[in-house]
Amino acid sequence: MSENAPELTAELIVDSAVPRSPVISPDGVWVAYVVASIGRSRRPVSALWVAAADGSSPPRELTSGTACEGVPRWAPDSASIFFRSDRQLHRIRLDSSESEALTTWRGGIVDHWPLADGEVVALIAADEPSQEDERRQTERDDAMVWGERVPCSRLRLFDLGTHELRVVDGLGDRHVVEVVQRPDGGPLAVISWACPEIDPGTFTAELHVVDPGTGAVHDLGRIELEACSPAWWSVHDAWRVAYLAMPPPASVDGFAVFDVTVPAAGAAGEHRNLTAGMTVCPTHLVQVADGAPLALFADGLDTAIYRLDPGLQRFRHVSTRDGRVDSLTVSRSGEVVAALASTAYEPKDVHAGPPGGRLVRLSDIRPNLRRIRWGTQERLSYKAGDGLDLDGLLILPAGKRRQDGPFPLITLVHGGPYDRHADEFNAGSFPPGQWLATAGYAVFLPNPRGGQGHGYEFAAAVAGKVGLDEWTDIVSGIDLLIADGVADPDRLGIGGWSHGGFMAAWAIGQTDRFKAALMGAGISDWGMQAATGELGALEAGLSGSRGWEGPGPHRHDQLSPISFASKVRTPVLILHGENDTNVPLGQATFFHRALCHFGVEHEFVVYPREGHSIRERNHQLDLLRRTREWFDRWLGDPASDQDRI
């Protein structure tokens, strides 16, 4: 890298664009995808692009990027693309520069799936507002009634010839979340919830088979939590539906692939776990029209493609890709796949190729980032105190080697806890590792137990004891880096977002070895999270109890950072979105008030209009700059260290 490499600025990160939602055409010739800016305006916009799957021609922009365009899906003949734009269904032909608006549904289109006959599109859409609804809105009667505040989305069938939109009545008032048609043009597999509220919606998920011609519905019964990605396949001329979901007992966010026979008549069979005992974790399942499903699996720091073996009814390894791969999509034949892929120094782009062969990069959305002088990213492998094998990443300060240490070290804990740090490009909009490494910090990205990539048992290890073993896993990695001369023990920081924010708050209540912490959208009280969070009942499984289980103290009190606030001496930067419903703002406010009471140095920042992720451009810029300034203040500015050398 040239000594004249440009500086990494917050604007360079936030004003970049990223690819999303790739989908390969049924004939395997084209890949459509969305390009959207990282830092959004209050009215986000995106554009639809298309590229040759073999990389033989450069990508071209199909739509102008003046509206919020997304969720592309191909017509069965691979000649046109259906997509959502400003909550309506549109279509554009490959040989055209103009798109056609197909719907004006006042309830808005949530999702869509073109059916095999080429004449009908299955839509998920809420009911249009009634005159009474409109009267209330006019009179500003905006009382929020639980069970009514989120409209139910129904399965509807849209006739492309007549533009008639009819609802599938057999599902009643159930909230439809996902649909896939049988590859031979037969019925639809449909996942629904009892209501649109995430909790209890995802706890009441059911699987149905719907005849698109008659609207007849056959129920396949209750399915496990957070079910998604349904995929048809057949064995011995019997059709089955596989899907991703959480195995029981549903106390953690670990996923498995389940499968059920679709009977010609009568009750469905047992919903079987096809991934039990595997040491990798399924992340995405896709249907293959002419064969068995393919799936992505988190495999340590990398990502693997597996194919379901119909005979063994188990997944077989096909290939492993360095870093992170997601959003897998496959051609009708199964011979060509496309996905988003990223490695240590290459940002996420669209790639395509054979499942077992080389994937060709099709998009090159951020070429300017190649001129930046990045910190060296290393893979780490080490053991926990109890001997469990662990992995993670170390990013050295830009332009430095290990022997140049010790360096101020910032540990960034991932969210979830069922997530991971893959060996991917680490320069996103949340305080990313390279943002800190280019400022002179060494950055440790640990993968403690509770995360994905090492099988279900590894993920389930934190059930009922969140913050305990995963915390000592993180400490083991920090101690290793100190012993190796990489980390300065007197200049340690810790931070994270969501579950990572919880771990940062937990850490500073257990030790005073950190000189600064960042708590981003973190949980301070598990009892309050079970009461008010989107998936409170699920998260109660992490902390082991709920507040209504009789007089305390409860298990969750022992695992809540708020219970240890009196021991905190570390300066804390608290960041939170005002409208966060996943981890409500009250979690940050509670911790802030406790720190005020005990006189702990801290800064409390609330971002208006933001949810669990910070999306507005100016807020993202503030977050990046404020993060660096905070650690510079308490760990000593590494740039000043360089000036003194």
From TrEMBL:
GO biological process: proteolysis
Alphabetized UniProt keyword annotations: Aminopeptidase, Hydrolase, Protease, Serine protease
GO molecular function: aminopeptidase activity; serine-type endopeptidase activity
SUPFAM superfamilies for this protein: alpha/beta-Hydrolases, DPP6 N-terminal domain-like
Keyword Transmembrane: no
Keyword Phosphoprotein among record annotations: no
InterPro entries for the chain: 6-blade_b-propeller_TolB-like (IPR011042), AB_hydrolase_fold (IPR029058), Peptidase_S9_cat (IPR001375), WD40 (IPR011659)
Domain Peptidase S9 prolyl oligopeptidase catalytic: 434-636
Protein name as it appears in the record: Dipeptidyl aminopeptidase/acylaminoacyl peptidase
Source organism (scientific name): Streptosporangium album
